[in-house]
Fold:
Amino acid sequence: MQIHAHHLYSVPNFNGGTGYCAAGCREWFAAHGLSWSDFVAHGIEEAELAATGDELAHRVIEHARASAVDQEQPNG
Structure:
């Protein structure tokens, strides 16, 4: 599954709100040796994000999976 920026900005966060901040995400990507600009342009494979072992990454992955399931559900 491909993870995109909209997943980062819509994931439930630890403060009870929604989304991770772009500045913090850019720092997180740099700290894990990942390209923020490539991610924004193309997304990132779930496996590459999961390989970081980071809880924030796993939260985004689970959110993206749940969003995909929600989109597959028929309306009505």
Observations:
- The two ends are 26 Å apart (CA to CA).
- The chain has one domain: 2-72.
- Helices lie at 5-10, 22-31, 36-42, 46-50, 55-72.
- The chain has a mean pLDDT of 90.
